[in-house]
Amino acid sequence: MSLLTVGSVAFDALETPFGKTDKIIGGAATYITLSASYFTKDNNLVAVVGDDFPQSMIDTLVSHGVNVDGLEIRKGEKTFFWSGKYHDDMNTRDTVEVQLNVMEHFDPIIPDQYQDCQYLMLGNTAPAIQHMVVKRMKNRPKLIVLDTMNLWIEIANADLKALLRDVDVLVLNDEEARQLTGDYALVRAAATIKAMGPKTVIIKKGEHGALLFHEDRIFAAPALPLEEVFDPTGAGDTFAGGFIGHLAKTDDISFDNMKRAVIYGSAMASFCVEKFGAERILNLSKEEIQNRVNEFVKLSAFSVEM
What we know:
Elements: E1 3-6, E2 10-16, E3 19-20, E4 24-26, H1 28-36, E5 43-50, H2 55-63, E6 66-74, E7 81-86, E8 93-99, E9 119-122, H3 127-136, E10 143-147, H4 150-155, H5 157-164, E11 169-173, H6 174-181, H7 186-196, E12 200-204, E13 210-214, E14 217-221, H8 235-250, H9 255-272, H10 286-300
Helix pairs in contact: 1-8, 3-5, 6-7, 8-9, 9-10
């Protein structure tokens, strides 16, 4: 089934203990659509860039089957830019520089050919903009998945809570779940979030896996132990792309299939961190992805003798 992703396409400049990069392709929607491209072929993008954004990077998205009819290129303006530096533990980072540029006045226009998309992924951006997208869909999608972050919980809390009433799945990390609810216990935090509107909550825990909460059921997905993590930038968005990409491919939003989607999302995120930016997820094979998923299965498979 068709997937629509709305979010940022951007430039990133990164520094980790393993090295540094100048401007490379980044942005939430970039990682989401690239990840989802390995699962669904009806993969549509709404975003905005400046005229400094190279055609070669747009061609990269197109080569992965991403429909860029909804990618606005603003003449005389610059693309959103983020620069960050990671600490030695790779779990914490400092934002060095942010240039909002075209994202400061992002007005997402949904092309007519996208209006029938059954799966909507709201990549991380201001909740007011995300809510605008939901309201501009002529037909409500079958599933709306929302990603957010600590900044919006802090400075746009009212907008975020209004949006939560209109989405089906919220994806956030453990720190953000605690910040949103004021509850350190993640099980209670998930219950509080579900009471705000979403039927399903996914709490990412980085190197400790992810938790899926749906109604009264919980699924705990492991994280794959990796020898080296070069760059965690975009890993959460890559997870989201694998998750919703699998759901769109199978057109099955049951709890059991969401569990599989969490594993596929986790597998895609584990590739993402192995190189800088989106480099590692640009040329994956189906065999590589399935082998990685099998590794996740082995991590949690066991037998019981009574």
